[in-house]
Write a structure and sequence with these properties.
Layout (H helix, E strand, L loop, with lengths): L16 E5 L3 H13 L3 E5 L2 H10 L3 E6 L2 E3 L7 E3 H11 L4 E6 L15 E4 L5 H15 L4 H12 L22 H7 L1 H5 L18 H13 L3 E5 L2 H13 L5 E5 L4 H10 L2 E5 L3 E2 L4 E2 L4 H13 L4 E7 L6 E2 L2 H10 L3 E5 L23 E4 L1 H4 L7 E5 L4 H15 L6 H37 L5 E2 L2 H4 L10 E2 L3 E5 L7 H12 L5 E2 L3 E5 L6 H18 L2 H10 L13 H5 L4 E4 L13 E3 L14 H13 L2 E3 L5 E4 L2 H9 L11
The structure holds pyridoxal-5'-phosphate.
């Protein structure tokens, strides 16, 4: 593995920042001077208290060079030492590299292998070696993007291409009257780097052994996994691959009924027996929250007592609205019962890079996590990752790969793979700082909006419902849900004004809320523009407030209903199409999914009740894109098919909604 970074813009080595932790003030001064003389930025701490402040506040720290033990505070006799010290560092900054710099000669004392990246014997005072090793470790463990580097190098070689893609590095389009604009818009680099699996130097996504494998290994390290796999068809595919790998037909999976449609499709494809968990519901704001912890535990016990082969539990953490589970506790409960845990972290890929979000699924001990790197980090759309920690993974790795290959295209997009490589490097090198910045921006936007009379950013207490009030649920402060019910407008009108008058596109809305995501691409200007726009709307609304406020203050009932037949078998019914308003009591053959966020209101086999009809009608009237409801028609199982499903024993009984 090369420690060279071909993207380094000059021959000068990058100026990494090291936090030096040494109790003696005199030694500390010398050590800082020696490191600075060798091109590092260096800051020092003589006690754990000082070190903690640096780790919390200095975004730029890449590595720590520490003594074996440090006083807790100035003049304190209490020491923080060894593994405890390393754990404290990692609890604040999982991504930093730790190097031990000690006069302790006896390595057997340390048992520090799992935590440290290097050891230096202090009396040697060999700062050349220290500098060389620290730099090499940072380069090789995180400050590289091997796939991106190789792709760029290859593209610039301008080889004659006798292989796909047909545009041949853009040659087919650049002088074309019909397609020249396309080339001009995207630029030559996109075409030159859009290559195919015929280029062996660029490795194969479906059987990686070169630069893609290296990039995946670096991602595994950054995200705290044993293995990482890149998915170029989003977390949608990642979820299906995992469910199909872990569950054979008839084996049971516990899933949040409110999970993404890809999980429901995974159930259909795998033939798994679903056990649906009922999420908490906040009807005031039309928001689904986490599944209560007690009902997850109860469902696991009930299913096992009923003799079901429960193989996996899948939850979405955090939720679309930023509600974070106490995931470690749930993982432990599942593992006590030998149930594997998959966490859909589509919206939470950055959780490993800032203590405001810790623990990520991997850090909490989950077996698998799927992440839409493209949703919250710098990767291109569709670029996702599957992280694996399952101790039994090696036994099924072949089967996992088979399933992965079943769903993956044989022509993956290389720029997308490069974007995963670079997004990972950015998070490993700068993630803490980027996240701290958006947490600060989020807090400041929250304060500004809350200074208005008619808009209010909802806090944790507003968002969660009573069922999960004692479940240690937390809020991701980079996701802001704004209550617009006092504004005189409903959220659809506000969305329209924001777009047409202020050129602002928000993430999503319910009838009385707007949700905005503060991503690592947010800027102060962008945030202030949103605030000014809301202030403007508040001023405009004036007397309209009383007249129209009824629209926005009505309570919503988010509807759920029983699943009557196994989804896989309901899915394969031919069914008949009938108007939604006439469908009460009938059973759906297909999913009906408002988008975004792609959470189905109906899944195959689910009974259509009055609440769901009303809710879907409201979504339609509201102009929300709905998949599976063309022209207001819903596909339902015919009476004959229902009889046949019952005869074949595909009724779900009381399997759903623990
Ligand atoms: C919870 C959840 N899981 C999975 C997905 C699918 O992710 P992707 O768009 O990467 O396929 C989404 C998309 O919105 C989602 O909200």
């Amino acid at each position: 593995m090369s420690a060279q970074r071909c993207s380094c813009p000059s021959d000068r080595p990058p100026a990494y920042k090291v936090l030096v932790m040494t109790p003696s003030g005199r030694e500390l001064k010398d050590e800082l001077r020696e490191l600075r003389a060798r091109g590092f930025k260096a800051v020092g701490a003589a006690t754990w208290q000082e070190a903690e402040a640096e780790l919390r506040n200095d975004n730029g720290i890449h590595a720590v060079l520490t003594e074996w033990r440090l006083p807790l505070a100035p003049k304190s006799a209490e020491m923080v030492e060894g593994v405890d010290l390393f754990k404290r560092i990692l609890a604040l900054r999982f991504e930093v590299n730790i190097f031990l710099f000690t006069a302790e000669r006896d390595c057997t004392l340390f048992s520090a292998g799992g935590y440290t990246n290097g050891y230096f014997f202090k009396p040697d005072r060999d700062y050349e070696e220290i500098a060389k090793k620290i730099r090499a470790e940072i380069l090789s463990s995180k400050d590289r993007a091997p796939f991106f580097d190789k792709l760029r190098e290859y593209a610039l070689q301008a080889r004659d291409a006798w292989h796909t893609p047909g545009h041949s590095g853009g040659d087919s389009v650049k002088n074309s009257p019909a397609a020249g604009e396309f080339f001009k818009f995207f630029g030559p680099h996109l075409f030159q780097s859009d290559l195919s699996v015929s280029v062996p130097e660029l490795d194969s996504l479906l059987d990686p052994s070169g630069v893609i494998k290296e990039a995946q290994d670096l991602a595994a390290r950054a995200f705290g996994a044993r293995y990482t796999f890149f998915s170029t068809n989003g977390t949608s595919t990642a979820n299906k691959v995992l469910i199909q790998t872990l569950l054979k037909p008839g084996e049971a999976i516990l899933l949040d009924r409110n999970c993404h449609k890809s999980v429901h499709y995974g159930v259909v494809i795998s033939g798994a027996e679903p056990i649906y968990l009922k999420p908490s519901v906040n009807n005031r704001y039309g928001i689904f929250g986490p599944v209560p912890k007690a009902s997850i535990v109860r469902a696991m016990d009930k299913a096992q007592a009923a003799g079901k082969k429960v193989k996996a539990l899948i939850l979405t953490n955090c939720t679309y609205d930023g509600l974070i589970y106490d995931i470690k506790d749930i993982v432990e409960e599942a593992h006590k019962r030998s149930i594997k845990v998959i966490v859909d972290e589509a919206w939470f890929g950055y959780a490993n890079f800032h203590p405001a979000f810790y623990p990520s699924a991997m850090a909490a001990g989950a077996d698998y996590a799927t992440q839409s790197t493209h949703k919250t980090m710098s990767a291109f759309s569709q670029a996702s990752m599957i992280h694996v920690q399952d101790p039994d993974f090696e036994r099924m790795e072949g089967f996992f790969r088979e399933n992965f290959n079943m769903h993956a295209s044989t022509s993956p997009q290389y720029p997308m793979i490069a974007s995963l490589d670079v997004a990972r490097r950015q998070m490993a090198m700068e993630g803490f700082g980027l996240l701290q910045r958006i947490l600060d921006l989020g807090d400041s936007l929250r304060r500004s909006i809350n200074s208005l009379q008619k808009f209010r950013v909802l806090g944790l207490e507003d968002l969660i419902s009573d069922e999960v009030r004692h479940d240690n649920v937390r809020l991701d402060r980079t996701k802001l849900t704004i209550d617009v019910s006092q504004s005189g407008y409903d959220s659809r009108e506000i969305e329209r004004i924001l777009l047409s008058k202020h050129n602002i596109q928000i993430e999503k809305s319910t009838f009385n809320t707007l949700t905005v995501l503060i991503t690592i691409g947010a800027t102060t200007s962008k945030l202030n523009r949103l605030f000014i726009a809301l202030e403007n709307i508040e001023r405009m609304s004036g007397s309209q407030r009383m007249a129209d406020s009824f629209k926005a203050t009505r309570e919503f009932k988010l509807a759920l209903s029983p699943i009557k037949y196994r989804p896989r078998f309901a899915f394969y019914c031919d069914g008949e199409k009938i108007p939604l308003r006439e469908a009460e009591g009938r059973v759906a053959t297909a999913m009906v999914v408002p988008y975004p966020p792609g959470i189905p209101l109906l899944v195959p086999g689910q009974v259509i009740n009055r609440g769901i009809i009303e809710e879907l009608a409201a979504y339609r009237e509201y102009g929300v894109e709905i998949h599976g409801l063309p022209d207001g028609l819903v596909s339902v199982i015919t009476a004959d098919e229902e009889r046949e499903l019952a005869r074949q024993g595909h009724e779900m009984g009381d399997n759903c909604f623990e």
